[in-house]
Amino acid sequence: MFKNTMKTTVLLAALGGLIVGVASLLGGGSSGAVMIGLVLALVMVGGSYWFSDKLALSSSKAQIITEADHPEFYGMVRDLAARANMPMPRVAISPADQPNAFATGRNPSNAVVCATTGLLGSLSREEVEGVMAHELMHVRNRDILIGSVAAAIATAISSIAQMAMFATMFAGSSNDDDRPNPFAVLLVSMIAPLAAGLIQMAVSRSREFEADRSAAELLGNGEPLARALERIELLAATRPMAVAPAQAQAYIHNPLAEFGGRRRGAGPDMTRLFSTHPATEERIKRLRQMAF
Q1: Whole-number Å distance between alpha carbons of 275 and 256
Q2: Cβ count within 10 A of residue 186
Q3: Across the chain, which distance is largest between two alpha carbons, in Å?
Q4: Which of 14, 26, 135, 192 is most solvent-facing, going by the fewest CB within 10 Å?
Q5: E-strand spans in the chain?
Q6: Which of 127, 129, 135, 210 is catalytic?
Q7: pTM of the predicted model as reported, rounded to 2 decimal places
Q8: β strands within 81-235, DSSP E
Q9: CB burial of residue 42 (10 Å; 0-12, 13-18, 19+)
Q10: pLDDT digits (tens, 9 = 90+) for 177-236
Q11: What whole-number distance in Å separates Cα of residue 75 and Cα of residue 132?
Q12: 83 contacts: CB under 8 Å, gap ≥ 6
């Protein structure tokens, strides 16, 4: 737990340092662009965070259920929430055939956990329990908030870089000594968003590992979730699932992975640096190495 928490803290600090550095480098005659970029990022990501439950449910076509609708699944979530000493979240089911699940909501009191019909129909009860424990740990660990903070900073960096670049381009050939070097602006505008994106993805992968660890600790056994991840990885390859890219990182398995032409875990791949999820075989390995 300490290792993952420290890693997340360091990554968020790196993002914070990056935005300060970018703002300082591009500030000069583009201070207005810097402020506009910050405001845009806060509005865009803040709105997404506040309405995250509605956006996620709409994107997945999920419906909120009651205990009468699906007593076994609803009761499982209720029992897990009680074991974790958490408020009972709303429970939803998405009609998607791919076995998958996600958690959303701005805090534990406004959370939703959702499973697809593919998950409920393809996995054993123990495996489904492992998956839902993972999703509840995202809620308990406030990963939706952490992800939103990382996204806000990364979006701000990209917005600042783009606006500063445009401001410099349209500033003409001014000899103002305070004006940033246009070549430096162009270089930073290209590199800063890339660096911010890499750090944001690393934050997401760190939180997935922590949710896996916390779920195994809650159940007293990492094997159910490990088996579930194996099963999901296998079945997802034959059951593509289209969701809004902004929602993909919320799922236990990236539902867009199969559209990339190459499955994760197929060997060394630099694209993993841009992945919101760790390689499935690494997650399984860590779960099976846990001692209880």
Answers
A1: 11
A2: 16
A3: 72
A4: 14
A5: 63-65, 90-94, 101-104, 112-116
A6: 135
A7: 0.82
A8: 90-94, 101-104, 112-116
A9: middle
A10: 556 667 777 777 788 788 888 888 888 999 999 999 999 999 999 999 999 999 999 999
A11: 12
A12: 218
